[in-house]
Design goal:
single chain; 91% helix
Length: 148
Amino acid sequence: LQEEIQLKEEAENNLAAFRADVDAATLARIDLERRIESLQEEIAFLKKVHEEEIRELQAQLQEQHIQVDMDISKPDLTAALRDIRAQYESIAAKNIAEAEEWYKSKVSDLTQAANKNNDALRQAKQEMLEYRHQIQSYTCEIDALKGT
């Protein structure tokens, strides 16, 4: 009976240890499932963004209406690829120039606004200085009147 009780206690201790391990494994599994869900959501979002970018690029291609002249008897792919590359480079250069122009205009606008604000601040300081001088002169007059 003592041996059976001891075996029972050992089995209960093992069961308690296994339960702790099972709980830890369950928590780890739940955490991994949450990470999988978040990664799947991120993948779906990235796919959506990628598809949108592809649609935009296709729209740009249709707008530019790139024509590839090909000799039917002898397809000259290198020339066609050079033409396409030149067109893309011109488009990229145009986009860069537009971005730089927009940037310069924004910097110019901000510089003008800063100069305007600095002038207004300088004028306000000048007015404040004049008002202080007036207050001092009025204070002196009041003191003089009090003395009389």
